[in-house]
Amino acid sequence: MGQVIEFVSKSERERIRLIQEARAIYDSIFPPTDPVSERSSGASAHRSDGGNLA
To answer: Which H helix or E strand runs over 31?
Structure first.
């Protein structure tokens, strides 16, 4: 009786699907790194642009 059913439009479902697909492609090109193992191995990341965000 207390169950809530949420309506999700077709366009919203497509948007979510495209985001998931894009994330999968991105992760296949740039695999996520484990920050804990990266720190323990002594590796450090350096930005080639000097770190400027402007």
So the answer is: none
Tokens of 31: 């695999």
Q: Which residues of the chain have pLDDT under 50?
A: none
pLDDT at 28: 95
pTM exceeds 0.70 for this model: no
Which has the closest alpha carbon to 11: 3, 19, 22?
19
DSSP alpha helices (H): ranges in the chain? Answer: 10-29, 35-40
Identify the CA nearest to 26 among candidates 35, 18, 38. Answer: 18
Question: Which structure tokens are listed for 44?
Answer: 């450090």
